[in-house]
Write the structure tokens for this entry.
Amino acid sequence: MHSIGTEPYIILSLVLFLMGAMGVLMRRNAILVFMSVELMLNSANLALVAFAQQWQQINGHVFVFFVMTVAAAEVAVGLALIVNIFRERQSINIDDLQQMSG
Amino acid sequence: MENLPLLVPLVILAPSLGAIVNFFFGAKLGEKWSGFIGCLAAIFAFIISLLLLTYVTGTDGSAAVVNPPLVDGWLRIESIGLEIPWQLRVDSLSVTMMLVVTGVGSLIHLYARGYMHGDKLYPRFFAYLNMFLAFMLILVTANNFLMLFVGWEGVGLCSFLLIGFWWDKKQPEGWKNSNAARKAFIVNRIGDFGLLMAMFLIFWTFGTLDFYKAGELPNTEAKYLVGWREHNGLLDHADKAEHNGDDAEGAEQAEQTDDGHGAAYVCESADQTAHDADDAQKKKSTTSTSDAGADAHEIDEAHETESEHGAVNPLGSDIRALYCDNHHFDTDYLGVFGQTQERFGQGETVDFGGFQLAFDDVIFLIALFMLLGVTGKSAQIPLFVWLPDAMAGPTPVSALIHAATMVTAGVYMMVRANVMLWELNHGGYVIGLIITLVGSGTALMAGYIALGQWDIKRVLAYSTISQLGFMVAAVGIGAYVAAMFHLVTHAVFKALLFLGSGSVIHGVEHGHHHAHSHSHGDNHDDDHGDQEFDPQDMRNMGGLRKRMPITYITYLIGTLALAGIFPLAGFWSKDEILADAWYEGFQLNELSGFIAFGILLVAAAFTAFYMWRQIVLVFFDDARSEAAQQAPESNGAMLLPLVVLAIFTCIIGFINVPKATPIFSNIYETYEFKHFLEHSLLSVSRGHSLDFNLLIAGIALGLGIASIVVAHNVYKGKGLARGNRDQLERHASSRVAFRLANARLYWDEIYGNLLEQPFNRLASFFADRVDWDFLHNYFHDSIIKRGFDSIAKLLGQPFDLGIIDGAVNGVAWLVQRLANWMRGLQTGYVRLYAVVIFIGVVAVILLMLTPFLQNMLQSGS
């Protein structure tokens, strides 16, 4: 139990988060962007669990459950949107979706 | 008894209520009830006046001032010290007027019920009549000039309304009626200007408009008061010398004229009495004067009845006693006439801001302006011209307003102001002479014009003017009691004559309808405008003696009274004026006396002549028209007032029988009316008291009878039909004189040419040249319009379009540019937005971490 400290988890979480963020900013495929968002959420989850472990507090665990619930709901809604967008224009390239430009 | 004056507001209230009821509900009430209410209001006021008479006689001439409830204070402008309470005055003079107004007024109301029968505006007529009574009673009960003025204008308004009562008749008569109304109103405005000026001067000079303040005795020199002072040794030497040998009152006059102020209030005795006066009474009087508005009423006990026992000093209750301080008292506590009495001839000056005038001169000016007011209201030269035209009104109106009451308001006011006139006359001013000239000139002129008139009412109108001239002349020679006496008797017999003439006109009119009943409707008021037939023209009458016997007898009594035939009312009053004039002229060598005596004697002869001419033309001989032939006697409602007035005409003259009259002075108390009035009129106590003068009475009576005989011989049996010339016109010697009289001496034409035409020309000059050409065409069009246009253009082009619109449009342009630039930021690329959010989040986190990082760096280093 005492073999590994909190730091490696946090570093892993940071790496995952940065990867997710890069994915969100760089990828054009909506599905991949979506997946990157999930990655970021889960990195945050990891950090929460790590800290909860460190401070022996239940709050972090509770947050994680909430985040997972919200993520699940988000996936449902998001995928539904993407499916509909694809049906509409046979593409899920987010750079094509710029009707709102000024 | 002491509380009786509290009833005086009812005298005004009753006719006011009658007027209001008839105004608003008259049409619903119907003719019967509307007339009933009008008469009831008048009779109620008459009964109250009788009660007030019992108060004045019962308390031996007390004067009371009443503040009616609800009208507290009335008018107050503190910045200029103006405070005018709504106070009603009950003294012998106002009660006399109240009795005349309500007594004659009641009878005329009763008469009008018959005369106006069938008129479509019947309720309105009674509303106006009641309104007139209310205003007339305000006029005579007023205790200050402003209230008098309210009444004065009010009766003027009612006069206007009633003269023009038949304004909607068939043309041109409708126009004639409304023109007559407007003429009366406008001419009276000129007189009112005089009264207003007099009021302004009075207020400036005296600081008050009250006749007498509450608690002030109008006549501190009344015989009973002097007697009391003498009895108690309070009379100083000057007074004593004057009142020694009082038995021969006539002889004392010469002394008094030399020393008009001999009888002025003696401060010493008053001072003494002030201390004697019991404290409670003193306190009461003080509060009542200083705080007049606060009390619901104050009654001034002019004197106690036990004065002859010496129990209470009658002067102790006079306001003067309270403010007496070592031979000097503050006149500010007195009313206008009290102040005049004390301040006249003391060499005071009155400051008018820019200039100063002697006090006595100011009083003279006031009297002159007042005289102008009198010439308007009482129809004297030069403002009498409205009265003959005023006959356009219904006959009861002529009787009530234009013969008995309203036109005597001027005489009443001058008698009320007798202190001023007396002081002026005895201070070397010619006001008496001026008034005498106006009065006797009017009497002669109007009497002369009446000789040549055909209209039955017009004769009476000029007769009224003439008799008012008698009264004014009496005031001019200082015979105030005689003026009031003639006012009373004239009110009775002239009302009788007017009502009689109304009865005649009514009868002739009905006779005319009867004669043409198939061609005319029976509507009373539509047929007044008949153009071919004039029911007022005496040439259409004749022989009415048999058709209208009661009207004839009463009319005859009135005529004889007016002609001054013994022993009817007119004989006594006219004789008293003549006797006073004779005394002033031949005993005292006053010019005004000579003038009045000479002119009035001629006027009296004229009076008898034109009245008998009227009697002959109307009642004698045979009927000269179908209408007169079939004229019926009037109904009972009209005859009853005639009979009552005829009875009063016979007896009213006995109220003032002179001393030493054969037979009559044994039956009646002599100079009863004079002693009654003495309590209100200072000058009466200072004046003389004449014995009956058989010579003058004989001359006047002989002249009257001679005139009647001449008139009878001239007109009887001559059948003066329409189209025929008057008897006087047939004779070359009197032709010019008759035509002048018939043309009314061209007064209207003279005024028309001298005043009206220049006035109209001036008006059209102002309208056409000044207003239209200059103001409208030049000033308005060229200057104002053009200037306005250029200013508008200046404001419109550079200012509004340039600056205002520029600013607004500039802001809009700016916003547009900004928005255009900012549009570019919205690319629509989701990833770009994400980057921006990312950068933002990082920035926020860095910001939050800044202190933490700083700490780390510091601790690290």
User: Anything to note?
Assistant: The beta strands of chain B are 64-66, 75-77, 82-84, 88-90, 349-351, 356-358.
